[in-house]
Amino acid sequence: MQTISIPVARRTALAAQGFADPRPDTTPTRRHLNRVLSRVQLLQLDSVNVAVRAHYMPVFSRLGAYEPALVDEAAWTHSARKPRLLLETWAHEASLLPVEDWPLLRSGAKRDGWWKHYGPIIERSPGLVDDILAVVKELGPIGAGGIERELETGTAARPPGSWWERSEVKKVCEYLFGVAQLTTGTRKSFERLYDLTERVVPPEILARRVSADEGARQLIDRSARALGVATETDLRDYYRLGPAVARQAVSELVEAGRLEPVQVRGWKAVAYRHVEARTPRAVTGRALLCPFDPLIWERARTERLFGFHYRIEIYVPEAKRVHGYYVFPFLLDGELAGRVDLKADRAAGVLRVQGAFAESTVDHGRVAGELAAELAHMAEWLGLDGVAVGKRGDLAPALKRLVR
Predict the structure, then answer these.
(1) Beta strands in 215-372 (DSSP E)
(2) DSSP letters spanning 202-250
(3) pTM higher than 0.90 for the full model?
(4) Helical segments of 125-211, H only
(5) CB–CB of 343/380 below 8 Å?
(6) Helix 6-16 crosses helix 212-227 at what angle (to 10 degrees)?
(7) DSSP state of 101
(8) What is the tens place of the pLDDT at every residue in 230-257?
(9) Contact predicate 273/229, CB 8 Å
(10) What sign for the dihedral angle of Cα 299, 217, 31, 186?
């Protein structure tokens, strides 16, 4: 078994995630978006909007400023000229992933998630499922609130409290989304508007059947392509597969020559390098990474690769937060060099840096200069007039001197 160093593993991982690719020098197009998707495989969705929605940021991190409608059109519209590229389903978490990957997630390789706990509601109120599907069939795409109103006032109305509560409608919608009877037809102000799956997923994709074993192999293969070099735990986490399923798929992919076992110095577990992975001599450039960027979402892996301890502190009481509410690590020339707590203050027209922190081994002046330039680029992309730096963090004084 070949042994590789952590710097080699790091460069391999960065290249797999698209950070060795130069940013385009023209306005990014659907072709550029496809290039990003071929690297990351999926975009995680999240409701937090303190700076920018999670599914937009990884594309910016890799391409620079682009029109967010590029992602919106790929995910939530369809036309003959511009077919839908992405579908929304549960993968790592709620995610956007390529249309052609839909059968893999429905193959049985991935276990049912948290929505299975809503099963008792369906057992208690079986007619609610039929009524929700009937409303969506007639009026979809439609949000949960619209479905509730229709059930109360439309043809499917029942006497108040007869066998369902308003809060149960959203839960049953999410259950039906989880088991793929419903999916997201489109979104409006980020609200999920449900539609029947057969009206959103192309018929040739919907008809494609993949066994659970083949689905697991293909999902692990995609994980490995996205990660470059990774442990079995890393590989299974990308699509949140079960341990036994993932281990079998890894073993079969090793036998097939798609994965090569390697030892990374300092890692306890064996790693696996994808046959298509490449390792550049150097990775240059800069990028801000949102907390849900696939490069860093597995925190233990982030620490193994970069020596960077990172935890999201949204749910930590403010007085106990170390770095801030919504912190973006800063990638500079292949290293995580610092982190900034960001907020898009649209009322004031500024990108607020509520805290700025440098890693212990970096040149503060250089990091501050590169970070200031990237923050200005991000502010312009978000349609803000500038950057405002607060007082928190050891990097804040140097950064404050450099921004307008």
Answers:
(1) 229-231, 259-264, 271-274, 286-288, 327-332, 335-345, 350-358
(2) -HHHHT----HHHHHHHHHHHHHHHHSEEEHHHHHHHHT--HHHHHHHH
(3) yes
(4) 126-139, 144-153, 166-178, 197-200, 203-206
(5) no
(6) 110
(7) G
(8) 999 999 999 999 999 999 999 999 999 9
(9) yes
(10) negative
Helix (H) or strand (E) segment spanning residue 374 = helix 364-381
At residue 165's C-alpha, the angle toward residues 162 and 167, to 5°, is 170
Task: Quote the CA–CA distance of 70 and 73 in Å, as a whole number.
Answer: 5
Across the beta sheet with 229-231, the strand order is 2-4, 259-264, 271-274, 229-231
Helix H or strand E segment including 4? strand 2-4
CA 393 to chain centre: 28
Record the tokens describing residue 50, joined without a space.
């303190």
Task: State the Cα–Cα distance between residues 143 and 186, nearest whole angstrom.
Answer: 10
Count of Cβ atoms closer than 10 Å to residue 315 Cβ: 6
Q: Cα–Cα distance between 194 and 182 in angstroms, integer?
A: 6
Place of tokens 């077919």: 83
At 110, give phi and psi (nearest 5°). Answer: -100, 130
The helix/strand/coil state of 1 is: coil
Go through 186-223 and write b for each residue having 16 or more CB atoms within 10 A of its CB, e for each that does not. bbeeeebbbbbbeebbbeeeeeeebeeebbbbbbbbbb
User: Could you give the C-alpha distances from 281 to 7, 286, 311, in angstroms and in order?
Assistant: 10, 17, 30
What is the tens place of the pLDDT at every residue in 184-222? 999 998 999 999 999 999 999 999 999 999 999 999 999
